[in-house]
Design a protein that fits this description.
elongated; 2 domains; alpha/beta; about 325 residues; Rossmann fold; about 45% helix
Length: about 325
């Protein structure tokens, strides 16, 4: 073969290869929106990735995952959703954040949404029904009211002398704050508990809330579920230990950080289920036909070291029902 013919054949081959690559579909982009911070959400993000992997999707190979960490800046979520819709991402995943779910639902009726929330998605207008969502959203739901009442009961069982309970909520996360206040106030009278509500939306306001306890000493603290609060679990543990204040939280990671107790859904399991649903949708299933899953895994976790430091003797009957005891 002459040199000119050889060069021409190489040029044609290169052009064909380039054309073939140009025709390859771009990897789908999944936007994972988290209310917390990257540093405190590694376990949950890994669980989401694992769910996707089981459906054949591996980040960087056949899917791009954009991770957006709100770190409690709920005022930024509308702008984020507008940008995601403008860029036509393949799917928006919002496990663990009702605020992000509602913002995504407001921003688009076309892009699939996979949520995870502790509120009723039917009541919030996210889906038409649990069995048949009939829209662009589906995911995982748990009943916050039942969980909040159960958490309050377990706190009362663990610290029977605690009658005056401060409930700390983040008003920027209005859906979770309002439902927590409502459900705790409904459950408290039957237990003979007095409830006082405090708000905190940033680090300084968490500090201020604890500072107020020196003036009006409560018997215990009940922290509402919130992504920003979860990202500040070290701050909560330090301040509660300093003030010798028993505190109940919504997730195991607070207790690992030194909190007294938690009761709630296994958030990593919610993320895993969201990852599975995301993979199914990328494979062609429609959110409208995918029933909303109900959380079935709940954890009651006690930190015995913290209990001892607070002078709390955990009764055997309470200890026996704990799913995990941290020594």
């Amino acid at each position: 073969m002459r040199r000119r013919e050889f060069i021409t054949s190489l040029s044609v081959a290169a052009a064909l290869a380039f054309a073939a690559r140009a025709q390859e579909p771009a990897m789908p982009v999944v936007a994972l929106v988290n209310a917390g911070s990257a540093e405190t959400s590694e376990r949950n993000a890994a669980a989401f990735d694992d769910g996707l992997r089981k459906l054949g999707y591996i980040e960087g190979k056949n899917v791009t995952i954009e991770r957006h960490w709100l770190a409690g800046h709920y005022d930024q979520v509308d702008g984020l959703m507008t940008d995601l819709v403008r860029r036509h991402v393949a799917l928006i995943a919002t496990p663990g954040s009702a605020v992000a779910t509602l913002a995504a639902k407001k921003a688009t009726s076309a892009i699939p949404i996979v949520f995870g929330m502790a509120q009723d998605p039917v009541q919030l207008g996210v889906v038409a029904s649990l069995a048949r969502p009939n829209g662009n959203a589906t995911g995982v739901s748990s009943l916050l009211g039942e969980i909040a009442a159960k958490r309050l009961q377990l706190l009362h069982d663990l610290v029977p002398a605690a009658n005056r309970i401060v409930v700390l909520v983040n008003p920027a996360n209005s859906t979770a704050a309002e439902s927590t206040i409502r459900d705790v106030r409904e459950a408290a009278p039957s237990m003979g508990l007095q409830i006082h509500i405090l708000n905190a939306t940033n680090i300084a306001e968490i500090d201020a809330a604890f500072a107020s306890f020196a003036r009006d000493r409560p018997d215990a603290l009940f922290v509402a579920p919130d992504g920003f609060f979860r990202s500040r679990r070290g701050q909560f543990s330090t301040l509660a230990a300093r003030d010798k204040l028993p505190a109940a939280y919504s997730g195991r990671d607070y207790v690992v950080a030194g909190g007294l107790m938690s009761y709630g859904t296994d958030l990593a399991e919610t993320y895993h289920q969201a990852g599975l649903y995301t993979g199914k949708i990328l494979n062609g299933e429609k959110p409208a036909n995918m029933p909303v899953l109900q959380s079935t895994k709940f954890e009651f976790v006690i930190n015995l070291q913290t209990a001892r430091a607070l002078g709390i003797e955990v009764r055997p009957d309470v200890l026996s029902i704990a799913d995990e005891v941290i020594e």
